[in-house]
Specification:
By secondary structure, this protein is of the alpha/beta class. Helices cover 39% and strands 10% of the residues.
């Protein structure tokens, strides 16, 4: 008799065990449970157990379609009925291959077999007449199983299918021809049943819809019309990202692992995430999972070698990652982000000294939780779970919660356990609770774990934000115990730096351990005095372990995230260095060898510098669309292309719900369209391979039609006036050779952009502008530009309009600057909105009154437009720079409409003291100085603490109310100094003093200090002196410039330090000189207004009244006024006293200060060993921006054999000087921007690359400067481009040297960017040490010994007298920096003093003498009938010969020299 059975919970056998039993019993080869869905195996099991109940001849052992499956299950049901077996079959699910029902049936048969098998012999192969029992895998049936057969089976719910029912199946009756059609359509479309279950479960649009005819339609929408062929086609040659999500519900009791694949669709220009498959490994082991994953990729023909990024959300996928890394070492794994916070928490706890005690106390309290009173149970409710202690240290949220609760009820716990019956457990708990150091540790953990908890709670977001937050965590924990200088070293090297000299810990009082800890330590200081050291060491151990764990866990270094963003951004490509790109290439595995690294660098530079002038990216073009265009012109084998595809394939988010929504969201959109149109459309996109080149390198193309800046310039508020400007670096309209700025700065002239003029609507000439103005007319109060005698146009305000008899309109205009009034015809005026066309850079640079007028007009414009300005510092220079940028940009966002007069205009005029004055004439260059009683204070003469003027100053709007009584009180000292004091800013011919530098005195130090640094006690300068002189504190612990204790670096000239703000100020202003040749600002603080000057002829130092009176003693400044001459403290250090003490090695300290002030560390340059004398060969040089070939002259003077000297220069006069002086031995080539790699290969290889790009747009002297990335500033990148082309490969032993020069007086950001690209810090060299003239310059390079002190040779002329012709006498020992401006040769305030006297008369420096000052031979520039000004211009842009000789001299150890040295000799 047959024994009926029922499944119970104890019959829960594994799938592998069931399949092994089935294969052994029936000699079959089933791999998956669902492969038994044909029912043939179950039919034969019934024949084995109950012979004769089933005719095996009718069983379809090789099922080909759904009818065969149903036939088998019909035979099985008949056998059940014949043998009275009470087992119902869910045919609709079994036919579908439902995993749950199939497993249940297989388990039931195992139990049924065990109860009914009596050991009879049975040969399964013979019984089925030698047929093989094959696993079900027919593609047609797979497609059929995706159809909805519920209706087909509903006609016989009891499962008794007779012959009549056969006609209802597909292919048996014409009435079901629609099913046959579907079968044909989906015959080539297949997906796993688990994938279909996933779609049913997680796609709301499908589960809520009843209108779809079949499941196949839903699968098509989710998976795509060409699934999986389109995925294979996209990933077979491109990098892709794999997402794996474990434990995803497929049915109520069934789960699976969802595999998603992400890649960049180059045809559509989109980042896509697609559903690949859903798998269910036979075993929950890493080996089984790896096998399933590899098999899945093989099934879809997706190469594992292209796997760029992998993510798996399992808690500990270490073994799987290790195995995958063996298969593809180049894959980037993001799995560690899943448990980053938990791992860091565990490592931090285990590193603490009291780690065991902490865990022991928590464990024992948890064990006694049932006995706790209700109040404590309520507080510690988190402990009531039985598995509370399990993995507690790895759950930062749970751990922090219970630790915090414990600190709250600590005393109550101690009382409770003390009152209990004494036993060993309670004694141990009481002993632990009595340990005050343990309580301190709990208080500390309550504070220290909070950031980890915050990260854990919000980590499931945007991937870039997750990485950024993780980097922020590292910086936070590092700043809790490290000094700022050590944080960067720690971030680079992690825990390896612990205990090394690179790490400096914060003092105990500055460590961040939490307010509760500090308070508790203060209350129990006496009791814990012996435990403080162990506690702080434990805190350091915790912070170190946590930060190191995060660094180790992060898949990307901190800099990689920034570089990735910049590389993908069209606007950021110029900010990315070649090294940053190659580092990413190595990180993402696209570079497998040194050769690949070189190829990647070359391809990136070709992309970076391709069509710089025309390349742009529209503002409405997404990053995806930008790269869609770029990738179409890249070779298929391009390494840079592969890197971009890897970056574009990166997931935007790792959160499972968000990724699923992204995958299924596109399907929902398709479904909505399908419902609206009621027709299915082919959504596939065919790839067009014709646009992709087969070249292996990047090919440039005009894929950037319009820049965001150009597009923004099109949209203006006033439809009648639209402007767009660009600085034309080649402009030569202004022929006045004296109208050039100081320090080699050639002012750029705004002009309409050649590349954008066709895209905008702009009046083509002034006549059209005038006609437009006549039609529109001007109103009272409107800002205009008008003609002024001696100038082009001047800014003013319309005061009154008068209509003439002839119909013309006369405008009474009040001119900005001096308030004079003139009557001007309206047709001669232009609206202020055409700022770019009317602004005169030369007048701005040379005429103080014009500059002041422009500044005042811009302030009124900003006030009217309510423009909010973002200032990097509180200086007037910075305010003016921002205002000019705003004006050149078209006064965005308000545009010309924002410049219209407002109701409070009179108040605005009064605030700036613009009082109109009647005058028959027009403004002149300089207005006479007003008497002291009439003189009104000007904004640029104010040097006070702005925080004391909160009510009268508004930096955001750019105004300062000088009528405020508070301001007047602060300014009451102005103009009362004795005449004997040297005040350089109040001369009649130069009425406005130098612009004060507020940076070191006005900014709140607490605002600018790093958030990672705990604030120290702050001081002002008076308090600082008291602390040093009276209390004996170390002066190096204070900022000498402002007095704060938050120091950043040493003061290079005097004992003491500088804070970060003052350091930045110091680096920008120390080498800035006024027209009189003296420093623009105080030598000590680089600020100050009222200064005293050193009387020694060769010294240019100045010291302000604040520094002298505060640091040396009150009244000292007044005493020094009577000394004539007064010698400064650097020239006579023995005269210093008080807190102002010069460093004995200040000349060396200045070099060190400027060599390291970028706060950037770089790997040392490659060191080349000296070449033996007999192996040295002549040198080959490429000189960019060659000028008058100073490099060639120096090389020949030093005796070098020059095999080839290729020079790139565009100035005709400079080229003529080079050709004439060097007999055509120099090869002159075209503009540096046109030099390509082919040229380098043709001319090279080179041994030395030298050059210094124009400083027009870099020097701070130029308020209209554009910076490093625009105008002439971006010419630096041509040097950088060629440098990377010329650098030898790593395996090339050939020595290669390079040198880049630029001005010292540049913005810190520009300097830092140059350092970042050239990967080194500069060396500052001032020519004043080897010549009679000041000329401080930065030099970057890898020349040996660049940072050695510069010393004069015997042939160097160190004084001006040595350079003069006989009969002439020098009035100065040294002269100021000589530039292209002729007046730069004069000395003193306002260029009033001639440096030379002859026959008792003052005289200027002759041009031949000027050549000697620079170190050139006499008459070196006397070519081409050039005049004096032209010759000075080419000299003013050149290098100092002695300086270059100093830098080039060490190269004599590498290259061949002539046997006889030149007359100049060697350094």
């Amino acid at each position: 008799m047959v024994v009926n059975v029922v499944l119970t919970q104890n019959d829960d056998r594994s799938d592998s065990e069931l399949l092994a039993w089935l294969n052994r019993t029936l000699q079959s080869n089933f791999v998956k449970v669902e492969e038994t869905c044909s029912g043939a195996a179950y039919c034969q099991l019934m024949d084995l157990l109950i012979p004769g109940c089933i005719d095996l001849k009718e069983v379809k052992f090789k099922a080909e379609d759904v009818t065969d499956i149903i036939t088998n299950f019909r035979l099985l049901e008949r056998a059940f009925n014949l043998t009275s077996i009470r087992k119902s079959l869910q045919l609709d699910l079994l036919v579908r291959g439902n995993f749950v029902e199939t497993v249940k049936l297989l388990r039931w048969f195992k139990v049924f077999f065990d109860r009914n098998f009596e050991g009879q012999k049975y040969n399964p192969v013979v019984a089925r007449n030698g047929q093989s029992l094959e696993p079900f895998s027919d593609k047609k049936l797979k497609a059929l199983l995706q159809l909805d057969f519920c209706k087909l089976l509903s006609s016989n719910k009891d499962g008794n299918l007779d012959k009549d029912a056969d006609s209802s199946f597909p292919g048996q009756n014409r009435g079901h021809g629609d099913v046959d059609t579907q079968i044909k359509d989906v015959a080539t479309f297949s997906c796993s049943l688990t994938t279909l279950l996933f779609i049913n479960k997680h796609w709301p649009s499908f589960s809520a819809s009843n209108n779809l005819p079949a499941n196949c339609s839903a699968a098509r929408l989710v998976l795509g019309q060409k699934y999986p062929n389109d995925i294979t086609a996209s990933c077979i040659q491109s990098p892709y990202c794999l997402y794996m999500y474990n434990g995803v519900k497929l049915m109520d009791t069934e789960k699976g692992i969802v595999i998603l694949i992400g890649y960049f669709d180059q045809v559509a220009g989109k980042n896509k995430v697609r559903l690949l498959d859903v798998i269910q490994p036979l075993e929950e082991t890493n080996n089984a999972l790896l096998s399933c994953l590899v098999e899945t990729l093989r099934k879809f023909e997706i190469p594992l070698v292209n796997l760029a990024v992998f993510y798996y959300n399992a808690p500990d996928p270490t073994e799987l990652i290790s195995d995958l890394r063996m298969l593809n070492p180049r894959t980037l794994f993001l799995c560690s982000l899943t448990d980053l916070a938990g791992q860091a928490c565990h490592n931090g706890i285990m590193a603490m000294e009291l780690s065991r005690n902490i865990q022991e106390l928590l464990k024992k309290v948890h064990q006694n939780f049932p006995s706790l009173p209700a109040s404590l149970k309520e507080q510690l409710s988190i402990m009531k779970k039985p598995n509370f202690i399990s993995s507690l240290t790895s759950d930062c949220v749970r751990l922090r919660t219970v630790v915090h609760k414990m600190t709250i009820v600590w005393s109550d716990l101690r009382k409770f356990f003390s009152s209990m019956v004494t036993c060993n457990i309670t004694k141990e708990i009481c002993l632990l609770l009595s340990d005050q150091s343990l309580k301190v540790s709990f208080l500390f953990l309550s504070h220290a774990l909070q950031p980890l908890c915050d990260f854990q709670e919000f980590r499931d977001g945007d991937l870039r934000k997750v990485l950024k937050d993780a980097f922020g965590l590292v910086q936070y924990y590092a700043s809790n115990f490290l000094k700022p200088k050590s944080i960067e070293n720690f971030l680079k090297r992690g825990s390896e730096t612990t205990g090394s000299k690179l790490i400096e810990y914060l003092p105990r009082k500055e460590m961040k351990v939490g307010e509760q800890v500090v308070k508790y330590l203060q209350q129990n200081n006496a009791k814990l005095v012996d435990r403080l050291d162990p506690f702080y060491k434990s805190a350091i151990s915790f912070y170190t372990a946590v930060a190191s764990s995060i660094i180790k866990t992060l898949p990307l270094p901190c800099t990689a995230l920034r570089n990735m963003t910049l590389i993908l951004s069209p606007e950021g490509k110029m900010e990315v260095t070649g090294k940053a790109v190659t580092d990413l290439g190595i990180l993402f595995g696209v570079c497998q060898s040194a050769e690949d690294v070189n190829f990647l660098a070359d391809e990136f530079f070709e992309y970076q510098f391709a069509d710089q002038e025309n390349s742009s990216s529209p503002t409405d073009q997404s990053v995806e669309q930008y790269w869609r265009a770029e990738l179409r012109i890249m070779g298929r084998t391009s390494i840079f292309r592969k890197l971009i595809l890897s970056l574009m394939a990166l997931p935007k988010t790792l959160r499972m719900e968000s990724v699923f929504a992204q995958v299924l969201g596109s399907a929902s959109d398709c479904l909505m369209e399908e419902r609206q149109l009621r027709s299915s459309e082919d959504m596939s996109i065919s790839q067009d391979d014709d646009d992709v080149t087969d070249s292996s390198s990047y090919k440039s193309a005009l894929s950037h039609p319009l820049t965001p800046e150009t597009q923004n310039s099109i949209a203006t508020e006033d439809p009648k006036i639209s402007e767009s400007i660009v600085i034309d670096d080649d402009d030569s309209d202004h022929t006045d050779e004296d109208d050039v700025t100081d320090d080699d700065v050639m002012w750029t002239d705004p002009k309409p952009s050649r590349r954008s003029v066709k895209d905008i609507t702009l009046p083509t000439n002034k006549e059209e502008i005038k006609r437009s103005n006549q039609e529109e007319g001007f109103s009272v109060g409107e800002m205009v530009w008008g003609p002024v005698e001696g100038f082009a146009v001047w800014p003013g305000l319309v005061q009154k309009l008068t209509r003439q008899e002839n119909g013309d309109t006369m405008c009474k205009v009040s001119w900005f600057g001096d308030g004079m009034i003139s009557k001007i015809p309206s047709d001669a005026l232009q609206p202020y909105s055409v700022f770019a066309q009317c602004f005169c850079p030369n007048s701005f640079a040379t005429v103080t009154a014009y500059k002041d007028a422009v500044f005042r007009s811009l302030q009124v414009a900003a006030n009217r437009s309510e423009k909010v300005l973002s200032l990097e510092s509180d200086t007037q220079d910075e305010l003016l720079r921002v205002l000019l940028d705003w004006a050149f940009g078209g006064f965005k966002p308000a545009g010309p409409n924002g410049l219209k007069p407002r109701s409070n205009e009179n108040e605005c005029l009064k605030a700036f003291s613009w009082i109109p004055q009647k005058s028959p004439g027009k403004p002149v260059k300089e207005t006479p100085r007003q008497s002291k009683s009439q003189q009104l204070p000007k904004l640029k003469e104010v040097s006070v603490r702005l925080q004391n003027l909160s009510k009268s100053v508004n930096l955001q709007r750019g105004w300062l109310d000088l009528k405020d009584e508070e301001v007047i009180k602060k300014l009451k000292w102005k103009g009362h100094s004795a005449p004997s004091v040297k005040k350089r800013s109040l001369s009649e011919s130069h009425p406005a003093p130098r612009k004060p530098k507020y940076a070191s005195k006005t900014k709140d130090q607490n605002k600018v200090q790093s958030p990672c640094v705990q604030k120290k006690q702050d001081y002002d300068r008076h308090q600082m002196v008291h602390e040093i002189v009276v209390k004996g504190k170390n002066i190096e612990d204070f900022c000498l410039s402002c007095g704060t204790g938050n120091v950043e670096i040493f003061h290079p000239l005097f004992e003491g330090s500088l804070c970060l703000t003052c350091k930045n100020n110091f680096t920008e202003t120390l080498y800035r000189y006024d027209d009189d040749g003296y420093q623009s600002y105080c030598t000590v603080c680089c600020a100050g207004l009222k200064v005293i000057l050193c009387g020694r002829d060769s010294c240019c130092r100045s010291f302000c009244v604040d520094c002298v009176d505060i640091l040396i003693g009150k009244g000292t400044f007044d005493q020094l006024k009577d000394l004539d001459p007064w010698i400064c403290y650097l020239c006579a250090p023995e005269n210093s006293s008080g807190a102002l003490k010069p460093r004995h090695d200040w000349s060396v300290r200045v070099q060190e200060f400027f060599a390291n002030n970028s706060a950037m560390e770089f790997e040392p340059h490659r060191v080349y060993p000296s070449i033996p004398a007999n192996m040295r060969r002549p040198i080959r040089v490429l000189s960019l921006f060659d000028g008058i070939s100073t490099g060639y002259l120096v090389l020949k003077d030093l005796g070098f054999k020059v095999e080839k000297y290729v020079a790139s220069e565009v100035d005709e006069e400079s080229i003529a000087v080079s050709i004439v002086n060097h007999d055509g031995k120099i090869t002159q080539v075209d503009d540096v921007r046109r030099i390509t790699k082919d040229h380098i290969d043709k001319w090279g290889p080179f041994d030395l690359l030298i050059g210094g790009s124009p400083c027009n747009d870099l020097s701070i002297v130029n308020p209209a400067r554009k910076g490093l990335f625009e105008g002439t500033g971006r010419l630096f990148f041509d040097y950088y481009r060629l440098l990377n082309m010329m650098k030898p490969k790593e395996d090339d032993p050939r020595p290669f040297f390079w040198l880049f020069e630029n001005v010292v007086f540049m913005n810190n950001k520009d300097k830092a960017d140059i350092c970042r690209f050239l990967e080194c810090n500069p060396v500052l060299v001032d020519a004043v040490k080897v010549s009679p003239a000041h000329r401080a310059r930065y030099f970057w390079g890898n020349l040996p010994g660049m940072n050695r002190p510069i010393t004069a040779s015997q042939n160097d002329k160190l004084t001006l007298q040595e350079c003069l012709e006989p009969g002439r006498t020098a009035k100065y020992v040294k002269v100021r920096t000589i530039t292209t401006r002729s007046n730069s040769l004069k000395q003193g305030a306002n260029d009033s003093n001639f440096p030379v006297s002859m026959n008792g008369k003052d005289d200027g420096i002759w041009i031949t003498e000027l050549e000697k000052i620079f170190g050139f031979p006499k008459h070196y520039t006397d070519v081409k009938n050039m005049g004096r000004n032209q010759r000075q211009k080419v000299l003013g842009k050149s290098w100092s010969v002695p300086v270059i000789r100093h830098l080039f001299a060490p190269l004599k150890d590498y290259f061949a020299c002539d046997e006889v040295l030149s007359k100049s000799g060697e350094l």
